Amino acid sequence: MPKLFPPFLASLMAAGLLAATAVLSPVRTVDALTNCTVADLSVDSEESAFLTLVNNYRATKGAEALTMSANLNRAATWHATDMATKAYFSHTDSLGRSSNTRMMQCDVKPGGTGENIAAGTNWDTAQEAFNAWVNSSGHEANMRNANYRQIGISRVYLASAPYRWYWVTDFSTVNDGTSPGGGGGGTATATPVPPTPTPTPPATVNTKAAMQTPAPGSQLAGDTVTFSWNAGSGAREYFIYVGTRAGSNNIYGGSTGQNLSATVDDIPTDGRTIYVRLWTRFSSGWQSTDYTYRAAP
pTM of the predicted model, to two decimals? Predict the structure, then answer.
């Protein structure tokens, strides 16, 4: 079961976010088990399913299977809980710690580390989290990195948090000898499972959303642009990347839920190529279409 927390934050909005980080040189400048108290270190079925998915994927890349570490699980759960309860999305936690510092303070052994995070109102399953990460270069690189030996996996659900579902996977190049149920410092507590949503029957024909304005290939009018698209058919959610490289989201990346537009600020105005990827989520998964524009001069 996911780690659950009582609702106490304010608003709710449909969204999905991704971020990845990696530190591949040994760093240890902090004490162990500092600000790393976790109430629930149990491993639910979706977290276990994610371990299978990532190891199957690593096998196709010639990388050895990862084992779960109690210490990495603790670090991942602490961060997922912190993001949900304090309503933010970043590798830098509410105490100002980087992912590597946080892992060291959760008693992860010195070595190279990496972290993937994701948050989305509909990303409750391992397959959805895996699909989102495998289609993003930085996250995919962490999952297949042959140097990593262990992983920590956590998903946290908070009904009143901005994105409801929060996923964190932490990676380490060192096997610390721990596994879930051994070497951990938290006590697993039984928590209620949120009601299972009624499945939505798949549409007979699924058609990806298509960008309408600005016209694909055109020059953007300025540094703030509203991108609009049609509904397609069978769509359950839309997500848009805007970046300066193909498939990147270094300018903007976010879910619009069922809304058919997104306003993006801080677009460069130097005539460069701007890359836009429009995602459509169907009951069967995500599909995307890429577009290019010329930045305003």
Answer: 0.57
